[in-house]
Q: What sequence folds into this?
């Protein structure tokens, strides 16, 4: 252990029970990176598994005094390297602060600790007839703190919005102009409120670069009534499935979910789980309609018609709930299924919905030109596409080709009026892409905000 690390450990130990500190390299290593296999992680000095806000305050105060970076971490399911350790940092793991503190059914809100897992929050509020809609495919594992820090999206964003739309208030341990280690309350509990600048909005999606979120007040909805309808369309080409998305948007239809899986994803899931998936089509579109009664039936019929008009091989409403659920399970399992094939580099581009066919065309062209294997899964209704680049383990030439294709995907999205990241965050992987996307003035303002709130640059430096 270096002298600097010894001093850090000693100072942290003055305000933390001994079992909070992680020094064993075998424990620290898995705490030091997220699921973005291709994003580099450096060596952390110490890991801290905090259990209270006071412990988080002590960590931030200590790190500020010693000039040590703090990298907050939820479940580590991020796909951009956002939670990856930087050299000599403290990895601050919030996953043990996982309680649902309050459910206020009368006011449609709940208050949770940052380490509460998304699906656990959903289950807790469901007992009160309530619903927390944001549903990243990682919902069984990812934390609300991580969801807030990345402004996570998910399957039902198309109709119900992203994490930002559900965060009313926060507590955060901040730095800079207040004092490093101070806990502040941001936001409110009311449905409306415009007192002061929207600092909650600033923290949502800030990827741990402005402070550490220690509590979140979430807006809820009443639990949906009725049984949703599923419409499935099979397409001869990826581009035709994109044309169906554009067609559905043009017709003003808003399914709760509109997801795309290409043949490579279906094959990967089938090979792993043997679910009896039909992988004959080039792509499947899965739509879920939750409008009740006749309106829902009419919307489902119109979605199937839009798919047919766009060239679907077939498009029909599923009459078998088990089969429909299996298709959505396949969608959720697509990423882990692909990971079994080799290191996966995941894209997260988002384009205007009318440009989905053009982006899908570019993905095929760029991947073919670089000779890289891709599989595409997408929140297609949002224009948010995740082409995954997969290389054989240990194949450096393929890896370089994939990296070149990755950057070209980003440029193609920017050229189509899109963005380099729809929901996974900038992290490490999209830093260059973000600089190519954003207006120089916007970059300057962002730098100024970060400097004002964190002049010592200790909060997750080098990310975002
Ligand atoms: C199989 C799979 C499917 C996925 N599907 C989706 C999807 O559909 N939609 C989607 O948006 N994402 C998806 N993701 C990506 C990932 O799950 C999300 O980004 C998620 O929000 C990360 O949560 P986490 O708890 O794992 O955070 P981590 O990965 O631990 O951290 C993510 C970022 O948040 C910061 N952070 C974490 N906690 C705090 C805190 N308390 N205070 C301040 N900063 C904090 C970290 O520093 C880091 O920058 C998927 C990932 C996987 C592996």
A:
């Amino acid at each position: 252990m270096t002298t600097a690390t010894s001093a850090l450990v000693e100072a942290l130990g003055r305000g933390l029970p001994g079992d909070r500190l992680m020094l064993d390299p075998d424990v620290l290593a898995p705490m030091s990176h997220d699921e973005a296999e291709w994003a580099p992680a450096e060596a952390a000095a110490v890991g801290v598994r905090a259990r209270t806000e006071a412990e988080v305050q002590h960590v931030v105060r200590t790190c500020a005094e010693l000039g040590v970076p703090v990298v907050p971490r939820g479940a580590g399911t991020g796909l951009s390297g956002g939670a990856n350790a930087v050299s000599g940092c403290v990895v601050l793991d919030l996953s043990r602060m996982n309680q649902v503190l309050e459910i206020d059914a009368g006011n449609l809100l709940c208050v949770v600790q940052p380490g509460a897992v998304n699906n656990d929050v959903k289950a807790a509020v469901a007992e009160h007839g309530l619903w927390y809609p944001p549903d990243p495919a990682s919902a069984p594992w990812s934390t609300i703190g991580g969801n807030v820090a990345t402004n996570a999206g998910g399957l039902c964003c198309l109709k119900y919005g992203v994490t930002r739309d559900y965060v009313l208030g926060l507590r955060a341990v901040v730095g800079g102009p207040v004092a490093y280690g101070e806990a502040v309350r941001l936001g409110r509990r009311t449905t409306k409120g415009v007192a002061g600048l929207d600092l909650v909005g600033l923290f949502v999606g800030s990827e741990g670069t402005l402070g550490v979120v220690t509590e979140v007040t979430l807006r809820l909805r009443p639990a949906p009534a009725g049984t949703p309808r599923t419409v499935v369309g099979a397409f001869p080409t990826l581009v035709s499935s994109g044309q169906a998305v554009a067609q559905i948007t043009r017709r003003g239809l808003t399914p709760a979910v509109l997801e795309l899986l290409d043949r490579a994803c279906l094959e990967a899931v089938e090979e792993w789980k043997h679910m009896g998936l039909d992988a004959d089509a080039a792509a499947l579109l899965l739509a879920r309609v939750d409008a009740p009664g006749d309106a829902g039936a009419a919307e489902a019929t119109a979605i199937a018609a839009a798919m047919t008009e766009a060239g679907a091989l077939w498009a029909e409403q599923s009459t078998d709930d088990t089969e429909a659920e299996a298709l959505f399970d396949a969608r959720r399992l697509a990423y882990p299924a692909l990971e079994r094939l080799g290191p996966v580099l995941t894209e997260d581009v988002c384009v205007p919905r009318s440009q989905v066919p053009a982006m899908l065309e570019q993905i095929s062209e760029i991947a073919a030109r670089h000779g890289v294997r891709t599989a595409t899964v997408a929140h297609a209704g949002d224009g948010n596409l995740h082409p995954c680049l997969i290389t054989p383990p240990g194949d450096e030439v393929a890896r370089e080709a994939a990296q070149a294709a990755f950057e070209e995907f980003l440029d193609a999205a920017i050229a189509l009026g899109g963005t380099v990241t729809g929901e996974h965050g900038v992290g490490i992987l999209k830093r260059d892409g973000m600089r190519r996307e954003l207006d120089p003035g916007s970059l300057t303002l962002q730098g100024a905000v970060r400097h004002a709130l964190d002049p010592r640059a200790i909060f997750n430096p080098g990310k975002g």
